[in-house]
Write a structure and sequence with these properties.
Elements lengths: L2 H8 L7 E3 L2 E4 L10 H16 L3 H17 L6 H5 L7 H30 L7 H7 L7
Antiparallel strand pairs: 1-2
Length: 141
Amino acid sequence: MSLGMALGWKFNNAPGILTVDGVLTGWPEALGDIPTEEEQEEILAEYEAFLSAPTIADYQTAIQEMVDETARGKQFNDGVTLASYANSTNPEWAGQALAFIAWRDQVWLYAYAELEKVQSGEREQPTVEQIIAELPLIAWS
């Protein structure tokens, strides 16, 4: 992990922050006191956590896979296929599709509501596994 990259991230790429071989060698007066070695380690840890945090795409991919896996559990290729049976002349398939669509909508509404909470600071960013575990369960009618 690069100290220079971490300091640049933390201090908005302020000019005058210089590092050589992982050692802080230049610090602009405008930023105040030079961070101690302990503070530098904390900044490195924060930066590493930032880099390893899941992206929105990571959540979307995992949630969509869970949605599709639920459809496959009823022998459909994926969620899109199952949802396409909403107007089926087969009442069983139509019922499954309607239950699935209602559940899928609840899943995505919940996921985006939680994203808003994270972005507004109301909630810590969960892991992908945590958000999947929080999602509503389907109730097949």
